[in-house]
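FAQ
Q: What does a multi-component entry look like?
A: The components come first, one per line:
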Amino acid sequence: MKGSDTLREGRWSTRLLAVYFVLFIIFLYGAMIVMTVLSFNGPEGGVTFPLKGTSFRWWEALYNQDLSGSNADRIRAAGLNSLYLGLVTGAVTGLLALTLSMAFKRRFRLDGVVFFLVLLCLMTPGFLLSLGTSFFWQWMNIRPDLWKTALGTNVVWALPFGFLVMIAVWNRYDDQIEEGARDLGASAVRTFREITLPLVWLGVFGTFLFGFTLSWNEYDRTALFLTGGDVTLPIQIFSLTVVSTIRPDLYALGTGTTGVALLAVGVGVVYALIRLRRRGAGVEAETQVAEELGEVTGTDADRGITAGSDR
Amino acid sequence: MSSSSRPPEQPEAPHLDIGELEEAEQALKQELRTTESALGEKTTSKSKSSLATALLAAPGMLWMTFFLIAPVIFIVLVSFWTPKLGGFEEAWTLDNYDRLFNSSTYWNVLKQSVFNSLIVVGATFVIGFPVAYFLSFKVTNLRNQLALFILALAPFWTSALIRAIAWRGPLMGRNGAINEILLQIGIINEPLDILSFSNFSVVLAMIQLYVLFMITPLFFMLAQVDRSSLEASRDLGANWFQSFREVIVPQIMPGVVIGSIFVFVLSMGEFATVRLVGGNTVGSVGTWVRLEWENLLFPQAAASAVILILVMMVGVLVMLRFANLREDL
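Then the predicted structure of the entire assembly, as tokens:
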């Protein structure tokens, strides 16, 4: 139904668009591919083509400080900082997105304000956020650091994504199931723990992953106050790029950090697939059919009701 | 979207059931409570449930107040404060703005930023639309559609910083891949310098970074375009272009506006990409503010940032005029 081609433009336009899509993907990935290839350049090789042989020397320079010109120590320190910061950011984002979306779902007096603030999180350029944060903390006379300010601004960046994920989850959530639990005598806390949380857990987990990956890659939002000792990996990468001569170990580092982010996303996707499969193929098929019917009639109410039969 | 109290009735559903009646009842009760509280009366059940809601909302609201609202307010405050050696003191002044209004360099940088951002918005639309159109209209299988969409979206999960570095060095550099290829084919005789550390390369890099923010809303709006109205326009004898203009465009306008706002704001607030890809030859308001900040000219940096914020707000308001988001979404 989705793809019923009502415009009947003929096959050539489809083919043309397909070719265009491939070119577009090359445009998006081109730089990354070239970077990955060059990170395996030979020991004599530089940061541009042609390759002078291949080696793991530049990858080794990431963890072996003894190689000449290696920044291994700084990279390890910054990498660990980023890892811990990302995990905590993910956890905080998951928690805040869950509670905030639950409040939003209850439609209280300030829900418009909540929505506006969440949009503002998304729209405020990271660079301004770190500028303002540096002023604010300077005024409070507190030295900004990883756990006070960087955690704060990174969560602000991840929160809108988590919030939108949770809103999508709640849209498919059936409130009646909670009423049922309460009618059977469960307390509010018990209902939440045994009924609500298992049902929305996948969304919370997705929010955590958003938090981790966004924090892992974040530069702008921490750029203006994390200087000197305790820095994150992106800040370390930036200073390596600007200050010293670039060598292929920077490409190895770039390829490596990208790998970590994509690995995290991959783990999340696999986990989600396993969870969803466990819910039973039959139910899934039924939901899918119901969903498509919902789309035919096109009413949100329909979709909400049929989606409820998911569980 | 931003109305502060809930409408008393739920949208009409085709078949009502007990749950929905109860929901409507709840809604009415809620309305009653709001009215009661407005009149100064309190019921115990109301204070209990609104306490729970407040407790749920509080952590997130506090966090955003502390790490989003306060910083933005402080940019504005500091811009009116007096510079002092290595910092600022709370004495009101307009000097920071006075200095800016007399600096033609700043206005040139601002003009460049606006110009570049508008180009990036236009280019991301032109480049991104066929991709979104292909994914939503030409890929018939839902599974393929999702897979290809994720393939196009995956770069979002790699650092913008890394992508900028990959873009400037190995690809666009004087000895980069593109120059190599062009030399090999014989189109050019010596490396193109325009590709590296130029405004052109900055714009290209930003297009590559932000095109996904345009494609995503376009894709979701195109996927929702009412296929039967398309068919109807076809049956009424419209050619492809006519049905595109009369049927598709009005329906996807909110997506165009959202994508444009995203790309515009992101490019206006850009700093790292400009610095990395443009080197010292290209300026943006971001690099300007950063330079002032590094020289510890904090109130001056704040004033430059406030002007940037105002310009961005004007841009966003202008774009919002092209669609009624509150009604269309």
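Q: Is there any commentary attached?
A: Sometimes. For this entry: Residues 1-7, 295-311 of chain A have pLDDT under 50 and may be disordered.
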